[in-house]
Amino acid sequence: MSHGVRRLLPCAALFLMLLALVVLRWGPLMSLDAAVSGALHRTAVASPGWTRVSRVLSDWVWDPWAMRALLAVAIGLLVRRGAPLLAAWVGATALAGTALQQLVKALVGRARPVWPDPVDSAHYAAFPSGHAMSALVAGVLLLRLYGARPGWRWTARVLVVLSVVGVGCTRVFLGVHWPSDVLGGWLLGGAVVAGSAGAYAVCVRRWAPRTVPAHGA
Known about the structure:
Elements: H1 3-23, H2 27-46, H3 48-61, H4 64-80, H5 84-108, H6 130-146, H7 153-173, H8 179-207
């Protein structure tokens, strides 16, 4: 069993369990979501400075379109360096993640939190969080491509962890997601990247075993 499959299975299993609990509106999970979201929303209302910073980070720096732009740059660099298969893998993984996220959102149709004094707004259904999933998918892909280089290893990992955790926290803090939406985005993103990595490894072994790097550009 490949590393990708071994990582896919736990992420997929945990996501499906969480999905079932959300669809069934499991009482303890709903209560925990409401308690955490309510406490953070009250803090956001009382702390306009932190709220403005969170909106900039969430709506601009860590926005899904910003993550897609980073991956587009990476794809362009890979094509220039003569790694079209690797570039296609990055693009296909990003597209698959976006499509799967939107499909699950539409099927679950979970409502976002509603507040009498909102500090931010968002569209579409809540579960899973697109911001959380996009940040994880982009971060892991970029780490796989460039994070193995000694000079960038720890810096890249810290930046990715801060971005993935940070965007999840800001989405709940701003009152546009439940905590379980964020967790669902992380788990689904992990499953997508792990499954895609496993598929890419198979393609490399079959089609380009000598010319295409298996672990990044």
